[in-house]
Input
Amino acid sequence: MGKYAMGVDSGSVSTDFVLIDEKYQLVDSLYLRTHGDPMGTIAQGMGILRELYRDEEITAVGTTGSGRQLAGRMLGADVIKNEITAHGVAAAVIDPEVRTVIEIGGQDSKIILLDQGIIRDFAMNTVCAAGTGAFLDRQAERMNLTVDEFGQLGLNAKRPERIAGRCAVFAESDIIHKQQQGAGRADIIAGVAEALVRNYLSDVARGKKIREKVFFQGGVSANAAIRKAFENALGCQVTVPRYNKVMGAFGAAVLASEFMADRKTAGTDFRGFHSPFEEMKTRIFCCSGCVNHCEVTEILSGSERMGCLNDRCGKYQNNIPQ
Output
């Protein structure tokens, strides 16, 4: 029987699961589309994993991503960490010489600057969808291409088109205009890649000194055209690491493993592979305890309160029976 730490990255586009052993080697992983149903997708992933592993094999659980709090309450996570920390730790574990992490996911993009494995600076963009995985998925679908085909085709461009990349709405309008003018798909895709990189470097990475070694992580890192555009713009090699699409989940698993190694009390809080299949639901109510009037999300398993989210003062989050 193995002993594994599990990491879950609950995002808007994908929900990723990773199991690692005691030496931080990846044992198993899942990359599932969220499709607007984070609770259902977590249940789907756990349903797959419970056919392969037993509850007692899981020694630690960490969650990250935009849905990390919800996932953490559902599963009984030992560690709930933001995406910056998870991606930075993952990169440092795979290669201690990494200095810059470019991460572009389904709904946002990030830059993380490392020094000897320690996060020294970071920036994040969540304002516009232009250049994120969701935007690129839509453009691939419009061209009747898979995401992988979309990226590979961009490598064949002879004369990349100039595409406006500051706004998703304007970018799509520009793409349609170029198509109507007869521009080839490869040139348009390469133009989209160059626009994304320009936007990233002038916005997310503004004022940051990008040092080698550079890692490119997140779902968009699988797009070969964008990786090439980054290398052309930076004038250096950009490495797509192994586990590139599940680095957030990998980092969450590492953090959970480290936490449990230092924990004074024995045993994980993991509720078991069956936990997402309980009669679980959410309820939103408005707290009138102060002028904030927070819309609190309550997570219920049957009639039992499993956790609460979104209260700014922690009145409900910090008052959960253990």
Notes: The chain has a mean pLDDT of 87. The CA atoms of residues 73 and 113 lie 30 Å apart. The first strand starts at residue 4 and ends at 10. The chain is about 35% helix and 25% strand.
